[in-house]
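Thread: Newbie trying to understand structure tokens

Hi all, I'm a second-year student working on a class project, and my supervisor (Dr. K.) asked me to get a predicted structure for one chain before our next meeting. I've only ever worked with sequences, so writing a 3D structure as a token string is new to me. If someone could post the tokens and maybe explain what I'm looking at, I'd be very grateful. Here's the chain:
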Amino acid sequence: MTNTTTPPCSLVDVAQLATALEQFASDRNWAQFHSPKNLAMALSGEVGELTEIFQWMTEDASKEAARNPETAQAVKDELADVLMYVVRLASVLGVDLNEATQQKLKLNGEKYPVAKAWNTSKKYDQI
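---
Reply by user tm_fold:
Sure, no problem. This is what the structure looks like when written as tokens:
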């Protein structure tokens, strides 16, 4: 068991990706379409496309999806799409993903202390 309640200074560094996505949108005059509402809906759609890859797979098959030649590229593509929409949405909203992740990891550590959460999938209010 490792205690991970104190995260290091930098867990997430997406500055270069955020800049590249902003440039990509700017080059196409798409910033006008990148409202938080639209980006959140697009993100939801991409998560749905990722989920669809795993639909009806067995647990074992799902563990191999990123290595299976029939699904690997689709998994990579959809994960990249999800990441790009998360980063773009955070950028448009002015959310520092590193700070948000550190705060959320700390909160999760408080909600799920190792001694109570060890080896259980119960939600925090059930442990």
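A couple of things are worth pointing out once you decode it. The CA atoms of residues 110 and 117 lie 10 Å apart. The domain at 33-100 is CATH 1.10.287.1080 (Helix Hairpins). Feel free to ask follow-ups in this thread.
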